[in-house]
Amino acid sequence: MKFTQHCWLKYYINFNTEQRKHAKTAFEKDFFKLLNNAVYGKTMQHLRNRVKIDIVQTKKRAEKLVASPTFHAFTIYSENLVAVQRKLTILCLNYAIEVGFTILELSKVLMYDFHYNIILKKYGDKARLLFTDTDSLCYEITTGDLDDDLENMKNYFYFPDYPRDHPLYSDVNKKKIGYLNPLSGSVFFVKRFEKRAIEEPLSVLKVCLPPNRKCSESAADRVSSP
After folding, report:
1. C-alpha triplet 140, 196, 113: angle, nearest 5°
2. CA 128, CA 132: separation in Å to the nearest integer?
3. Lower CB density within 10 Å: C or N end of the chain?
4. What is the pTM of this model?
5. Who contacts 4 (Cβ-Cβ below 8 Å, separation ≥6)?
């Protein structure tokens, strides 16, 4: 197996990063950030999870779609309106998922390196990781002077959101790739609230089957999403 590789996306990413650095409005900042993130999002789309959705208003059409071997699930909107999902029978795997995979792996390298080799080495059990995301970390840290600690670790951060009269304020590493930015600025949280997933009951679609149609379930007229 042979392949060639080069930084084909480098100039695009660097251009948007540089434009975001010089953005004057919140819209411009979000716009150039989205231009980069959208490319990543497209490379991570799981095409096998795509479905075909039919909006149905008649009982006959609903029965036909539910009986299809590609039937997946449904959503009832009203007594005479239901959306039926079917799996695709033909897929074209034309998205560069290896790009998104590599981005995630490189992000993990940066995140784990910072967590284990910087934070834990400095604070030990005085630092507790509350939660993390692809490119963010939230810590509970017990220390005498956090500002002084951040000053000693400024090679890993940039502080453009701090007040200009704050000792830590600096835009030296502003929007540079690989540097961390305290999103709360110079304000530190003392309380936190976390959301969790809530389970909801499945919908039930009733379909009348022909008399000669047998079903292993006693309630033959009940079909629900998996």
Report:
1. 40
2. 11
3. N
4. 0.64
5. none
